[in-house]
Amino acid sequence: MTVQEVDLLCVGAGGAAYPAAFRLAKAGKKVLMVDPKGVMSGNCLYEGCVPSKAVRETAAFYQDAQRFQPYGLGGNLHVDFAALMQHKDAIQERRYAQHAAELAAEPLIRLIKGVARLLDPHTVKVDSDAGTDTYHARHILIASGSDVFIPPLPGAEWCLTSHDLYKPSPAMRALPEKLLVIGGGYIGLETATFFAALGTEVTLLQKGAQILNGMDPGMVNLLLPLLPKGLELRTNVEVQRVENTGTGRRVVWLEDGKEQNQEVDAVLLAVGRRPVIPEGAEALGIAFDHHGIQVGPSLQTRFPHIYAAGDVNGRVPLFHAAVRQSLVAGHNILAGNVPSDYADFDHVPTTIFTLPAAAYIGLTPAKVSPGSLLEARYAFSEDSRAQILERLDGEIRLFFEPGSLRIRGAWIVGIDAGSLIGQVGTAIAGGMTAYDLARFADQHPMSAEGISKAARNLL
Length: 459
Description:
This protein has helices spanning 18-26, 43-47, 49-67, 81-104, 162-166, 186-197, 217-223, 319-334, 384-388, 417-429, 434-439, 449-456; strands spanning 3-11, 31-35, 109-120, 123-128, 131-142, 146-148, 178-182, 201-205, 231-234, 237-244, 249-255, 258-264, 266-269, 273-275, 306-308, 350-352, 358-362, 374-379, 394-400, 407-414. By secondary structure, it is of the alpha/beta class.
């Protein structure tokens, strides 16, 4: 049996893998990426961030056109959902071509469509259409991502998942009149708002008491009343089963001890994701639980040369967090597996891309004892850009350390939330204070003015 040598073998080829791969290739190292899809990119492009936001931004434009109809803009509005899906598919195709060109330009990186199995701490078998090959890897980066979690729900086979909705050539090509979403996390709530904005009647069922469970209740309570009309939110329900009616679906649930049901055209099952642990990891003693492979800020497992980055470790399951973690792993590999770089799991900007959006970073009041943070606010009702676009709902809240006035966290609900939270994140990473933010001349008329204005409220 011939064993091929590589400096780095990446189990996966998404955002947790290819930044490290290109960093090592730049240093002259030989890299192999193994991925079941056979393309460079992970679930973000296949069924996550990019395609879902293609739908989201189209729905947002539709909302804007409706908002400005009184001024003679928009005309007779009509949603061509099939065309929208074609637009989504075209964006995915464009980005796949872009990634393929980047990969072709780097001769030290090879990508195989296949499945990797860990045999020992340095040996990996790869099963592909061409057969089985064995590799000796000086370093291994487990970046196998996550997959949709399907609970043992009777009738789950009659439900769609985010995979079905957003993958290339998705299962849904016609806009449903009625949609029921099971799950009140960010994927379920985002999708519910997209369809509601496009005109679908949407019901969302959440098992627990809070939609967006685990997020700051102050932010959530401000966001929920601002979501599109046509979206009904129900909490503290227990879904019993999903039935196929022949023409649609019937969902049966318990609420306040009583059985209720609703007939809809389609059901979206969005109750979370699970890490994809490569075969052989458990036998090697690599520790993991239902969240993912257990790693610290250096991203190393029990073996200093084996790393786990991105969704598979469950620390911050977001694409941009995966990219940063991949680079941390790459830097530590180049440092001889002696940690020289560390992932910051606590200060990653997170946006819920609902309509409108909400975003947060760092420490917020729900995470600390009362009085531990000083709060500064800015309402978008007084913002010039929000007024121009007739999007007056929501606000910026910044949270500072008493005494030093160093910014420690923030949440934003409303216009440009996803962009603004990045600016706040840069301020947190730079150790900036309310004085620093107040002195900065944010552009006018832009919503970022609200950051400096909020800081000035403390001074």
